[in-house]
């Protein structure tokens, strides 16, 4: 068999394999959608969580919302509702406000903490600014929501939960360099 003929046969085989793989990729889309539909994975988390929880209207939990900044964070950060009352199982949203008081963009990450410590098991966040890094432009103000449900299985003796966020500056060197540059050239 001549090498040119062998190369053509191999090229045809590889072409058929490539076309088959391409077709298989398209066939996976409806297959995946059907699996998600049957398993319930294709539904929005917020709607599914709201539908599957029972609101315990017989009790209210006092939720105290605390906001803190690491010492090198040039922001103002506060809870827009320092105290709210919520029924276990109730879908609730609270908002925090952050303002970058510096002349440079600042990247921050919020770390939550809970009191009492066992509350972390029952506080189910659906949406939270703490899930991702936050970048605020110079003097930018941002309202940041936290969408959550407190699990009705929370022990009955827990009447107050404190949710505290502390923002940490993820680029303090960039801010110091910008301030130094401004002092030198300003």
Automatic annotation (TrEMBL):
Q: What does this protein do?
A: Exerts its effect at some terminal stage of cytochrome c oxidase synthesis, probably by being involved in the insertion of the copper B into subunit I.
Protein name per its UniProtKB record:
Cytochrome c oxidase assembly protein CtaG
> What Gene Ontology cellular component terms go with this record?
plasma membrane
Localization (cell): Cell inner membrane
Q: NCBIfam families, alphabetically?
A: PRK05089.1 (NF003465)
Out of the domains of life, which is the source? Answer: Bacteria
Coiled-coil segments on the chain, per record: none
Q: Which UniProt keywords apply?
A: Copper, Membrane, Signal-anchor, Transmembrane, Transmembrane helix
Q: Which organism is it from?
A: Sulfuriferula plumbiphila
- Give the membrane topology, semicolon-separated if more than one: Single-pass type II membrane protein
- Segments spanning the bilayer are 14-32
Give one GO molecular function term: copper ion binding
